[in-house]
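Below is the record:
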Amino acid sequence: MIKRLELRGASKEIGKAHGSEGKEQVFQSLETYEKLFHGYQGISWKEARERALPHLKAIESYDIEMIEEMEGIAIGAGVDFEDILALNARSEIALAGYKGTSFSDGCTAIGVMPPAASETIIGQNWDWKGRQKESLLLLDIHSENKPSIKMVTEGGIIGKIGFNSAGVGVCFNALITDKKSDAIPIHLGLRAVLNSHSLPEAISKIKGEQMASAASFLIGSDDGNGNGMVVNGEVSPFGMDYVTENNGTLVHTNHICSNVVKEHLKDMNEFRQDDSMLRKFRAEQLIQIARASNQTLDEELFKTWLADTYNKPNSINHFPNHMAPEHRQMETVFSIIMNLSKRKMFLCVGKPSESQFEEIL
C-alpha cells in the first residue's frame, strides 16, 4: 500500500520523524529529482540546490516553522538542509521558466458541492514520474494550535494533497510557465492551506503575489453541518485569480484557464490542446452525463471518473506516452478522493483502472 507516518510535536520533531522513519522515501525523491532536473533543465543537483536558496528569505518571513520542519527532515534523513529545500522547491526548479519542448504532464482535479451534490467532495489523479510511487508517504500530522492533517506527499516534501480536521482540503495541478519569482514555493503554499482553519484563512495564504510559480489550487471547505464550498484558484507570482463555476462542479487540469494569469505568464504546456484540455472536457462530460441521468455525485462516481481511460494514454487515468523522452513520460501515481463533509479519504496507489481505492481511517 503506502507507508504511513504519524507525526506529532513541534515542527522540528515532526520533521525529524519524517526524515528518519521515511528515509527510504526521502532518498527516492532525491534520486528522482536529480535525474528530473537534469532532464528538464540540464542542471546538476548542486545547481538545483543553488536555485532553491533564493526562496529562503521569503519562507522565513512566511512561516519559520516550515524552515524548522525541513531542517528536521534533513537531520532525520542524514542529508543537507539544502537538499530538502530543493525538494520543496522542485516545481519552481523544474517547471517554472521551462524552455524545453514537447512537455507532457497530467493531473485531473474534480470538485463537487451543493447544489450539484449533497456533500462537499474533492479528488484528483496525481500524475508524475512512475518511480515516485516508491517515494509516497501518507502523513498524519498533529501540531499544537493547528488542525490535524492527513496528507499524501513525496518523501521530504512537507506540503501536498490532503485535508484537515477543520474540513479544509486541497487538490493541486501543475502549470508550466515561463516565469517565477523568489517568493514561496507552491508546495509550501499547499501546506499553508492545510494548516488553515477555514477557507478564508486558506485563501489568505496564497493570494496576491505570495506564490513563486503558477499552479491550480482546488480548495474545498465544509463545516460538517451541511455547509460546504469548493473554489479553484490559479496562483502565480503576479497574483491569484478564481476560475470557479457556480453550478456546483469544478474541473481543472494542466493549462492556465484565467485570462488574468495569462496576461502575465505564457502557458508552456505544449500538449495542452491534445492532452490537458481534452482531459478537462472529458471530466466535464462525465459529470454532465451523471447529472443528466440523475446519478448521485458521490465517492463511487469519483472512482469511476478518475479511472476513465478515454483517449489513452493521455486519459484522465494517465498512462506513459512512450513516444516522449523517458524523463517526460508521466502516469497516474496515485488517486485520491476526499469527502470533506464526512472527513473521509479514499486512496488508490497506482492507476485506479488497475488498482483499488481503500478508505483511510
About this structure: The radius of gyration is 19 Å. The chain is about 35% helix and 25% strand.
